[in-house]
Design brief:
Length: 555
């Protein structure tokens, strides 16, 4: 508190004012208040104007905004100034400076927390939406474009499940830093929730800058992240892009479009950017309908396992069965998995479906044995989503225990691309399955990009040649060379070879002459319901026997 006379000269300061100025009462007495304030604030003119107005109008006046104050200790404060006349005209005024530094800091912190993500410090949904509305309004006025890049980390849940949420939070903080470093100064990077981020690009003339940023995001997020404990994590992401006002002038619609584009890219393999296209609206509605129908189908037991025979080429015996899921969808008949598996993967329903398939397959083999039938090893397919955590190991263990099935009578099949997506994790998972005594087969071999050094680390007992190579082996030299090489490779690694998609006797003849162990395909049988497999377990049907016996002269 500082008292002044009618000429604005200081007559008295209290101890608090002495502390904020570093001056004693004697040192300040008689000084013009404007000169005193000038040593501590850049807003002397505003402060002095308030004091003079108070003296002139004989009424209290408060300066609307706090003034910055640099104290004698070098610390910065925010002081709210109020000037109040005292006594009669000509007797001066009292200038009160209230310290509101902490109050303003708390208010600013609360405002920041209301508009920013606590973990990453990035703008949150509320602030992003506000900026997006402004950006769209500006774009329509200027004739420019706005782009939304919806960024979703691929397989992030695996990090939380395996290493804990603390490590997951560390990764999200690194991702936030990398995203911010990859965009233009005026762009907004926001955390949408979980492992989802959104980049808002404003004032664009065309899509070229968007493509450049999308590629950069993919690149920087593919770099290793060193987590606590020295663990190196390899990330990837899927980016969905919508452009306004071309795609839509509405903020919420534009966000939905970017989300749909991201999910389309994710189910097509991820690690890519995808622009929104009009057909995605229909695709999304179909996906929602499919998801609801799948959930209903699981509850109402609309799924059934079919079994496709596998024939030993050398002995002519039934050597195995592959279990394949079919859906008896009301009004649609029997639905093949290629129609619904992608939707099941995307929604996470594939886990429940996969666990049901394992339980049903092992229980079916147990039922056949109870009927006195000779059984053969049964293969069950597992998906990429099922392989994302170790829960499948428990599902297999429980199914074996419940059915009493010998583990050697069960095989799991996973595709080559699934095995190679995360080799380190695949090696750990397959090692645990192998420890149960269950066989492991790699399906669709030849369609991915296997590293032989990695492949030999996996406890694989069987390679399955994809049917795309079998179809033309009798006429196409390239396919024939691939099949011959795969057979030699598998045998060199001590693995059995199964050829899929065998439909003709010339194909079977080629496979026999080059040492393939097992054939599977329509030449013998299409996938059949359990009731029709009983006869196969007793004896190969005549047409299958003929196909194998015709090979005898070539042995």
């Amino acid at each position: 508190m500082i008292t002044i006379d009618e000429d604005t000269r200081v007559t008295m300061i209290n101890p608090v004012a002495e502390r904020f100025t570093g001056l004693s009462h004697a040192e300040t007495r008689g000084r013009l208040i404007g000169d005193l304030l000038r040593d501590f604030t850049d807003l002397t003119a505003d402060a002095l104007g308030t004091v003079l107005a108070s003296l002139k109008h004989r009424q209290p006046i408060r300066l609307p905004d706090p003034i910055p104050w640099c104290g004698p200790d070098g610390r910065n404060y925010a002081l709210r100034l109020t000037a109040t006349p005292v006594g009669k005209a000509g007797e001066g005024a009292v200038v009160v400076l209230n310290d509101v530094t902490e109050t303003l800091a708390i208010t600013a912190r609360l405002q920041h927390e209301a508009t920013h993500d606590l973990l990453t410090g990035l703008p949150n949904r509320a602030l992003l939406l506000d900026r997006l509305h402004q950006a769209l309004a500006n774009a329509q006025r200027r004739g420019t474009l706005v782009a939304l890049l919806f960024v979703d980390l691929d397989r992030f849940k695996r990090i939380n499940d395996s290493l804990g949420h603390y490590v997951g939070d560390q990764v999200l903080q690194v991702v936030a830093e990398r995203l911010q470093a990859s965009v233009r100064a005026g762009d907004t990077v926001a955390r949408w929730g979980g492992d989802e981020f959104i980049v808002l690009m404003d004032n664009l003339n065309d899509r070229s800058a968007v493509i450049s940023v999308a590629r950069k995001l993919l690149e920087v997020l593919e770099r290793e992240v060193e987590a606590e404990g020295g663990t190196d994590l390899v990330l990837s992401c899927s980016v969905g892009i919508s452009v306004g006002p071309q795609d839509s002038p509405d903020a919420q619609t534009l966000l939905s479009m970017a989300d749909k584009a991201m999910y389309r890219g994710k189910i097509e393999g991820g690690a890519s950017y995808t622009f929104f296209a009009p057909d995605m609206n229909t695709w999304s509605r179909d996906r929602l309908s499919m998801e609801g129908a799948l959930r209903h189908g699981l509850i109402n037991r609309e799924f059934e396992l079919y079994y496709q025979p596998q024939v030993d080429i050398d002995s002519g015996r039934l050597s195995g069965l592959e279990a394949l899921i079919r859906w008896h969808r009301p009004g649609s008949g029997v639905v093949r998995p290629d129609v619904f598996i992608a939707a099941a993967e995307e929604t996470g329903l594939i886990r429940s479906m996969g666990e049901w398939a394992i339980r049903e397959a092992t229980a079916q083999v147990a039922r056949w044995r109870a009927e006195g039938l000779e059984t053969v090893p049964l293969a069950v397919n597992v998906s990429a989503r099922q392989c994302s955590d170790m829960g499948i190991v428990d599902a297999i263990r429980e199914a074996l225990a419940d059915s009493g099935l010998d583990p050697r009578m069960l095989k799991v099949e996973l595709t080559e691309s699934t095995a190679m997506r995360d080799p380190e994790r695949a090696a750990e998972l397959l090692g645990r399955i192998d420890a149960l005594g269950v066989g492991i087969a790699v399906d669709d071999f030849g369609t991915g990009y296997s590293s032989l050094s990695l492949l030999k680390r996996f406890p694989i007992s069987e390679l399955k040649i994809d049917k795309s190579f079998v179809g033309d082996i009798a006429a196409n030299n390239d396919d024939a060379a691939i099949v011959r090489g795969t057979i030699a490779l598998a045998h060199g690694l001590g693995m059995k070879v199964v050829a899929e998609g065998v439909e003709t006797e010339p194909q079977l003849d080629f496979l026999a002459r080059h040492g393939c162990n097992v054939a599977q395909g329509y030449l013998f049988a299409q996938p059949l319901p359990a009731s029709e497999i009983r006869g196969w377990l007793a004896l190969l049907p005549p047409h299958a026997l003929r196909a194998v016996r015709n090979l005898r002269p070539l042995e």
